[in-house]
Model the fold of this input.
Amino acid sequence: MKNKFTLSAIVAALIIAGWGGYTLGSQSRNSHGVEPTKQASDDGRKVLYWYDPMVPGQRFDKPGKSPFMDMELVPRYANESGPESDNGVSISARQQQNLGIKTAVAERHTFSSNLKAYGTVAVNERTLSTLSAPSAGVIEQLKVRALQQSVKAGETLAVIWNPSWSSAQQEYLAIRTMGDNALTQAARQRLALQFMPESVIRAVERSGKVQPRMTIAAPRSGYVSKLEVREGQQVATAQPLFELASLDPVWVVIDYPQSQADRLRLGDSVTATSSAWPGVSFSGRVSELLPELDATTRNLKARIELSNPKQQLKPGMYLNVASISSHERSALAVPQSALMTTGENTHLLLSDGNGHFTPVAVRTGESQGEWVEIKDGITVGQSVVISGQFMLDSEASLRNALPQFSDDKTATDTASAEISQTAQYTTTGVIKAVDGENVTISHEAIPALKWGPMTMDFTLPGGKLPKGVQLGSHINFSFSMDENGIVIRHIMPAEMKMDMSGGQS
Done:
C-alpha cells in the first residue's frame, strides 16, 4: 500500500512540474513581446496572420487549408505594410495567379470620328420665292385659296385684271398700224415702263387685241407657305401675293457638342433616317457650320442639306443623322475592361511589373469598340490591370489602399477608416430594379454568410450607377453590412465570367 502511495505522489509531482514548465515557458515568450498566435517564417520574417485570398477578411492564427476554398492559406508578413503607404498594394505572384490578374499596356489608338446626332427637318430657305403683282389691279381669279397647298411648275395661281393697261395697249396698236418704226418702239417701251410683262406685250402683238388680264404662274413645284390676298382684292404694284417653298432639297439643323467639333467639316457626306420611313435612307451633305454657340446647351449647330425627291420628309420631322466621312485621330487608350468606376470617379490600377499595384484616377473620353480614350491620369507605356482588378480591389481594401464609394469628399478619410473596419463581401449578380438609392440585385451564393442565391435590395450611395451598368446588367460587386444596412461599396460590369462565389474583405 505504501508503495502505491509513493508511486502516485511521484506521478502527481511530474504533472505539476510539467504544467509549471509550460506556464513558465509561456510567460517567457510573452515577456519577449511575441503573441502565441504570431509565428516566424523560415527566413526570419514575422507572420502576422494567415488568410484566404478569396476571403481576405477572415484571419487565421496558423497555416493550413482554407475552410472556404480548396487552397492553402497565405501568410501576411509584418513588413508587407510598407509598400501600401504609397496608396497601393503588393501582391505575390501566387496571389496574382489565384486572383486572375491580367495586364495590358496603355498605348495610342486610332479613333475614327464619325458624328452621330439628332436633327429636325426645316424648309430650305434658299428655295423660298415671293410672287408679287407686276402692276396695280384687281384679283379677278384666285386658284390657290389655302396655305400649304401643293402646286406644280407652270400652274396658274391667280389672274389679275388691270384696266389701266387697256388704253396703253390700244394706243400701241394704233401707232403700230401707222408703220412708223420709231413711234412704234417708243409706244412699246411705254408698255414696258408700266411693268407689263413681255409675254403680255407679245400677246397683244400676235392677237392685235387688248390684253388687260395677267396670269401669275408658279415658277417651280412646291407648296404655298404664305397667302397674302383674296379673290376680288385690289392690289398695288409690287405687292406680295404668294410665297412658295420647295421640299427638295430640305434642311436639317443638328446640335453637336463642342468636344465633337473635329468630327464635322463643311462638305462632309451624311445619311439620315426617320422612324416615319423605316428602311429608307436620305443622303446629303454639310452645307454650313453655323457660327453661333447655343447659350443654353453650349452646343454647336450645323445645317445639313438633304435630297428629298419624293418629298417624304416634312418640316418638323426628327431625323437620326450620321456622317459618312471619317476623320481619324490618335489618342491614348486602354481596354474598356481596365476601368473601375466608384461613384462619380473612374480609376485604373497600374502595375509596376513587380507585384505592386497603384490606383490612379483618370479622365476618360470617347469609347470605340473595346477601347476607351484616356485624356488624363496616365502616360503611354504604363501597364494597367484589365482582369481580376475587382478581386484585387477586395484584397487591397484590407489596407484601405483603394478608393471607396463616397459622394462627400470631405468625409472620405472618416468613411474609409470605417469601411476598413467593416467586413465586405464580394459576389456577382444581375440588376433587376433601380429605385433611387435602392438597387434590387439577383446574386449568387455567398458562402461566407451562408447565403444561397437570392434576390434582395441593396443601398447604392448617391443612387448613381457607373458607366456601362444599367438595368439588366451582369455585375461584380462588393458590399458591407452595418447599422446603415447593406451598402454597395464597389460595382463594375462583369465583362467575363469570373469565379466569385462570395468572399469577405
User: Anything to note?
Assistant: The domain at 86-111+331-403 is CATH 2.40.420.20 (conserved putative lor/sdh protein from methanococcus maripaludis s2 fold). Residues 1-38, 81-86, 398-421, 496-505 have pLDDT under 50 and may be disordered.
